[in-house]
Amino acid sequence: MAIKAVLFDIDGTLVDSNDYHIAAWQAVFEQIGATFDDQIVHDQIGKGTDMLVPTLLPDTDEDEQEKMGQEHGKIFKTKYLERVRPFAGARDLLAKVKQSGRQVVLASSASSDELEHYVDLLDAEGIVDVSTTADDVEKTKPAPDIFATALKKLSSLDASEVIVVGDTPYDIEAAAKCGIAAVAVRSGKFSDETLKAAGAVALYDDVAALLAGFEGSPLNHWGRYRIH
């Protein structure tokens, strides 16, 4: 079945922000006297607060998690958001998908105001058809809610008619729970083994590489690929 919409993660996929999120989380953990290696925190990036904090600090209650998430958001937006830059080829890939007759969807664990910032940063307001954020769902990735909500907004489409592009295993796992296949990019600095184990149907170095190989990619020729 032909692909009619592409669901893009944002952080680490379209924009180079993962290291800044690590720094913001480390500042939050420092405030409460918790210490983690950067790699430990990195390996949780792609999750929202509701999934990240309980993994690293399982004894925190929901109120504490919410406060930590709010503090992370404050630090990230104050110190780092303006430093985030799009990856090369990010806007061009969105435009290529749009020009190919497919719908462009932004499906992120970021907040709605961060998404608005990124749409402006990518100059993508006239390109994006649908978007979902952490503000739209009860649970963030790797729960399926964000992609499931996006699929509902694409009410005329079946899961087999859409595909996800993401940089973390949590994107891929969340997509699979909705029956959606996912292409992974290495720009989020997760290993090939991790991305393949999560179920990625194809790997590309970054969105520029995906753009360069668009014609033969799963975004354009799905028939040769399937969820492993």
How are the SSEs placed, and which strands pair?
Elements: E1 5-8, H1 18-31, H2 38-42, H3 49-56, H4 62-80, H5 90-99, E2 103-107, H6 112-121, E3 130-132, H7 145-153, E4 162-166, H8 169-177, E5 181-185, H9 192-198, E6 202-204, H10 207-212
Parallel strand pairs: 1-2, 1-4, 2-3, 4-5, 5-6
Fold and architecture overview:
The chain folds into two domains: 5-16 and 85-224, Rossmann fold; 18-83, DNA polymerase, domain 1. Helix content is 43%, strand content 11%. The protein has helices spanning 18-31, 38-42, 49-56, 62-80, 90-99, 112-121, 145-153, 169-177, 192-198, 207-212; strands spanning 5-8, 103-107, 130-132, 162-166, 181-185, 202-204. It has a six-stranded parallel β-sheet. The relative contact order is 0.17. The mean pLDDT is 94.
